[in-house]
Amino acid sequence: MVFKIDAYGRSNSAPDARIWKDSVSNSETTFSFNTFDNSNGWNNNTLTLSGEDNYAIINFCPIPSNPNVNGKTIEFEFRSEKVSSNNDIILTIGSQSAGHIDVTPNAAYLKVGDKLIV
Questions:
Q1: Is 73 found in the same domain as 32?
Q2: How many Å apart are CA 102 and CA 99, to the nearest integer?
Q3: Last residue of a domain, one of 15, 30, 60
Q4: pLDDT exceeds cutoff 80 at 19
Q5: Burial class, 68, CB count within 10 angstroms (exposed 0-12 / middle 13-18 / buried 19+)
Q6: Contact 75, 62 (CB under 8 A)
Q7: For the segment 51-98, what is each residue's pLDDT rounded down to a tens digit?
Q8: Is 109 strand, coil or helix?
Q9: What is the residue-wise DSSP string for 49-62?
Q10: CB neighbours of 82 closer than 8 A, spacing ≥ 6?
Q11: Are residues 5 and 28 in the same domain?
């Protein structure tokens, strides 16, 4: 394992609510919002983000610039609710300008830049 973050036991009222580090390489997550509350923050052992302007950047890029390289397994769990369009990207793993995975409510796409690979 090269990277692991977990929302279990996190609380909005904790003094370190804005600090979310992975337990392997100590990389820190950056949040786009300042107020942790019921709409954005830690709720029931999950990170809740509400609205298109609220997001978290997890500072780890598991996909090389050429994603056709074999040998990676990526596991993640997430839940989305009340997404307005089935084309909305709700999760991006990697860099938009290089190899990345875009996840919509209905599918996941492996891309290099704007070019669809799978």
A1: no
A2: 10
A3: 60
A4: yes
A5: exposed
A6: no
A7: 777 888 877 766 666 666 666 677 777 778 888 888 888 888 877 777
A8: strand
A9: --STT--EEE----
A10: none
A11: yes
Cα separation, 66 vs 88, in Å, equals 24
Residue showing tokens 């509400």: 50
- The DSSP annotation for 71-105 comes to -----------S-S-TT---EEEE-TTSEEEEE-S
Q: Which of 111, 60, 66, 67 is nearest to 89 (CA)?
A: 111
My answer on whether 49 and 71 are in the same domain is no
32 DSSP β-pair partners: none
Residues 115, 31: Cα–Cα separation, whole Å: 28
Structure confidence at residue 48 as a pLDDT band (50, 70, 90): confident
